[in-house]
Write a structure and sequence with these properties.
Blueprint (H helix, E strand, L loop, with lengths): L15 H31 L9 H5 L7 E4 L5 E5 L14 H11 L11 H9 L10 H11 L5 H21 L2 H11 L9 H9 L8 H10 L12 H17 L5 H8 L18 H17 L3 E2 L5 E2 L9 E4 L3 H25 L13 H13 L2 H8 L4 H7 L4 E5 L6 E5 L1 H9 L2 E8 L6 E5 L16 E3 L5 H12 L6 E3 L29 E3 H6 L3 H11 L1 H10 L18 E3 H12 L3 E3 L4 E5 L5 E4 L4 E3 L3 H17 L4 H4 L23 E6 L5 E8 L2 E9 L9 H4 L1 H4 L1 H13 L41
Parallel strand pairs: 1-5
Antiparallel strand pairs: 1-2, 3-4, 5-15, 6-7, 8-9, 8-20, 10-13, 11-12, 14-17, 15-16, 18-19, 19-20
Helix pairs in contact: 1-6, 3-9, 3-10, 5-6, 5-7, 9-10, 10-11, 13-27, 14-17, 18-20, 18-23
Length: 776
């Protein structure tokens, strides 16, 4: 029987419908997997798997180091203390064209998305970033605040995901305006310009609200890469980038074609004003404020931290606002005046030193010169640094004579050179130094403070740190004491003859004292007014002999002098060393009708929220009578009418070349000015103290070492070294009518009993020159 053939089952051909269903199913599986994967990626990012994510509180209050601002009395920021030089601004302080430039260049659909620009992201993926990145302003802010840089591509991709998550959270937390403001306040524009406020000041010398459109375009262009588009290093590249920003503004309707084209033709104009601690205005004053604040924060803690410990304010991070009395305009005029005069004075000094074998020192031996240099090297920062490095004294001593590269000060600008440390000490010793302080007598407000000629290279402050011999500028204190006690008149006459004050008398301990007049003239009589004007030593000595040193010392102490003043007769001629700040405070008492007002530099301190942390309280006290103060002022007016300060009214003396700005200027002031010059032994120190009714200004000029001085008084006297700075400064102040510096007369007390008009006064002379007392 034949076997049956097995039945075969034929496979049915796949229909098009079945294939479609399969593909649809696969698509949804892949799509769902992709969504799940993407969701998981973002969830992992939000959970902090790729790195720590900011908390709600951190999003609410992002931590930024804020610079402490020093604000002048006229509302100008004159300096900052910072870890990061960031001064925050509000959205309202930003010019609209700056915001428009930012949006047009960095995120054209900024107002349409919620942190992530889907279209830009898709474009970046498709074209692999060749047609622009996908980062929104919110993402860039997220990167600045919380993610930072990365070391490799994988890490960067993960950080990018974090930025997306943080950007969406920022968009929920803040308004669009707030995000723009935070972004511009956070960005590092280089050269210590953190944030748009610092960048505006440093690169253009103005606040953000005053930026022109082309200037705003420069800053926005830097947002792409501030290192690449650094205006100081690559100006042409920055200009090209600026024009790209202007094109973007035109593309999105913020500029018309004509305006864009005209702005693109403008050159790149910077007003670079660095804000490092050695740069800018009021550098010496800012260092004083820093020192003052370091003590204040220790005495005024902000509160306790979580561990119960006292937490101190940080002047480099907490964004404090220090309101000071300095007027930015007067400060600028003071610095300009010091620089203008000192440049020319230094030229004359260098010229006279050409044949000086011990230059820049005089009246010393070569051995003494070496001792001065060795002492300076021993106290140098170089030696201290090398000691910390464990170097031996022999190694340190050897290094002093090894040439090294260095940048040194020069009045024409900083110079790169090669010299030994020993030679550099000698080089810097030759420069004459100066100090200026200007103060309102009635309020005590210090309006200008110039501690030296260049803070970077000469950090010793000759306003507050340096006590120097005051010379004849001390004599008004002697006269004031005599007037207050004896009711003397400026018209009273005193013999010029020499006087010897015996040992043990009036404070002279070990030997007799016989002062001499600079002109060697001891004949006849002279009025007190003429005597002070011509700084006659013998008459000052006679006053001292009559009243003794003790009441004079008591007077200057009441006038705020804290330096030691020994009760000896020689203080009548200014043998004491005082600080310029003390002299200005004391002299201001005369202009304030005998009331001493302690100099004030800081009026208030605020935290970053505007809360007042400190408010100064004026400190005043009565020192001498109104009558004695006015008569002393009247005496000092004689100095500028016929004495050593007369060139303030007449201009240069006829024996000097009118073009020589060292020895005189055609000031020709006509208003009342009380003043006193001072010159110490061997011309080591030159002083001028000048007063008008609402401003007292003191100037000191001299060498770092007392052996650095002019050969003669032609250039070495206070009238030549210091007075011209005062004259230049006051010229500038008077030219600025907004300052309202007085040109009027000093206030005369009612019922003044002491005669000051010598034209109507009959002089009373002392007939017997040998008696110790004189009659009135």
């Amino acid at each position: 029987m034949a076997k049956a053939k097995p039945r075969t089952t034929k496979k049915r051909p796949k229909t098009p419908i079945n294939n479609t269903l399969k593909y649809i199913k696969l698509f949804w599986i892949l799509f769902g997997s992709g969504v799940f994967f993407i969701t998981l990626v973002f969830l992992l990012a939000s959970w902090g798997v790729y790195g720590e994510m900011p908390t709600f509180d951190e999003l609410e209050n992002p931590q930024n180091d804020l610079a402490t601002q020093i604000i002048s009395s006229d509302g100008v920021q004159i300096g900052t203390f910072f870890k990061e030089n960031r001064t925050p601004v509000s959205y309202e302080e930003l010019p609209q064209h700056l915001v428009e430039a930012l949006v047009a260049t960095e995120d054209a659909r900024y107002y349409e998305h919620s942190g992530i620009d889907a279209r830009g992201t898709l474009r970046a993926f498709v074209f692999l970033g060749s047609k622009g990145g996908a980062s929104t302003i919110s993402q860039q802010l997220a990167k600045q605040l919380f993610t930072g840089g990365s070391k490799n591509k994988i890490e960067r991709y993960l950080q990018k995901i974090q930025e997306w998550v943080i950007a969406t959270r920022l968009e929920r937390q803040y308004t669009k305006k707030e995000i723009i403001t935070m972004y511009l306040n956070k960005y590092d524009f280089l050269n210590q310009a953190i944030g748009v406020s610092s960048a505006s000041r440093i690169y253009f010398g103005k606040n953000p609200k005053d930026l022109k459109k082309e200037e705003a375009a420069v800053l926005v262009g830097m947002l792409k890469n501030s290192s690449l588009f650094n205006p100081l290093r690559r100006p042409e590249k920055v200009k090209t980038r600026r024009n790209v920003v202007l094109n973007q503004m035109h593309k999105y309707g913020y500029l018309n074609e004509k305006e864009r084209d005209s702005l693109k033709q403008l050159p790149l104009q910077l007003d670079y004003s660095p804000e490092g601690h050695n740069d800018g205005t009021a550098t010496y004053f800012r260092e004083y404020v820093r020192s003052w604040m370091s003590k204040w924060v220790k005495e005024n803690p902000k509160g306790e931290n979580e561990d119960g410990e006292q937490e101190l304010f940080d002047i480099y991070r907490d964004g404090l606002r220090i309101n000071v009395t300095i007027d930015s305009r007067m400060q600028r005029y003071a610095e300009e005046s010091v620089e203008e005069h000192m440049k020319n004075l230094q030229k004359e000094f260098d010229k006279q030193e050409e044949k000086n074998k011990t230059s820049p020192f005089r009246d010393i031996s070569q051995k003494e010169k070496k001792m001065i240099i060795d002492r300076a090297l021993k106290n140098s920062a170089r030696r201290k640094k090398m000691l910390k490095q464990g170097k031996s004294e022999a190694e340190i001593e050897k290094s002093y004579d090894e040439k090294v590269k260095m940048s040194v000060f020069n009045w024409r600008g900083e110079v790169d050179t090669i010299m030994t440390p020993r030679d550099s000490v000698l080089y810097y010793k030759k420069f004459l130094r100066s100090g200026l302080m200007s103060m309102e007598p009635q309020t005590g407000h210090v309006k200008a403070w110039v501690g030296g000629i260049n803070y970077k290279h000469f950090q010793y402050d000759h306003v507050y740190q340096g006590a120097r011999q005051v010379g004849s500028t001390f004599k008004p204190f002697v006269y004031a004491t005599a007037i207050d006690q004896l009711k003397l008149s400026p018209c009273d006459t005193i013999p010029k003859s020499q006087i010897t004050i015996s040992a043990g008398s009036n404070g002279v301990v070990d030997k007799d004292w016989t002062p001499k007049n600079s002109d060697g003239d001891y004949a006849g009589y002279m009025s007190l007014k003429e005597a002070l004007a011509k700084s006659v030593n013998t008459i000052s000595a006679r006053l001292m002999d009559r009243i003794g040193p003790e009441p004079i010392v008591r007077l200057v102490k009441k006038m705020g002098v804290e330096s030691e003043v020994i009760e000896v007769a020689s203080i009548a001629l200014g043998s004491v060393d005082l600080k310029l700040s003390e002299m200005v405070g004391a002299y201001s008492t005369f202009a304030n009708q005998g009331i001493y007002t302690k100099p004030v530099t800081i009026t208030s301190i605020e935290d970053k929220n505007g809360t007042i942390l400190y408010q100064f309280v004026p400190e005043t006290r009565d020192v001498i009578s109104k009558e004695a103060a006015y008569v002393t002022i009247n005496l000092m007016e004689g100095v500028t009418q016929s004495g050593s300060g007369v060139r303030l009214r007449t201009g240069p003396s006829s024996r000097y070349d009118l073009k020589n700005v060292v020895t005189g200027h055609p000031y020709k002031f006509r208003n009342p000015i009380a003043g006193k010059t001072g010159t110490t032994q061997n011309q080591s120190d030159g002083w001028f103290m000048g007063i008008v009714p609402n401003l007292c200004t003191g100037v000191w000029v001299g060498g770092d070492d007392r052996a650095v001085h002019f050969r003669t008084t032609t250039f070495g006297q206070g009238a030549t070294m210091a007075l011209p700075v005062w004259g230049l400064y006051m010229q500038k102040c008077y030219a600025d009518e907004t300052l309202k510096v007085s040109k009027g007369a000093f206030k005369k007390p009612k019922n003044l009993s002491i005669e000051v008009d010598c034209r109507a006064f009959k002089n009373n002379n002392v007939q017997d020159e040998n008696i110790d007392e004189f009659s009135i």
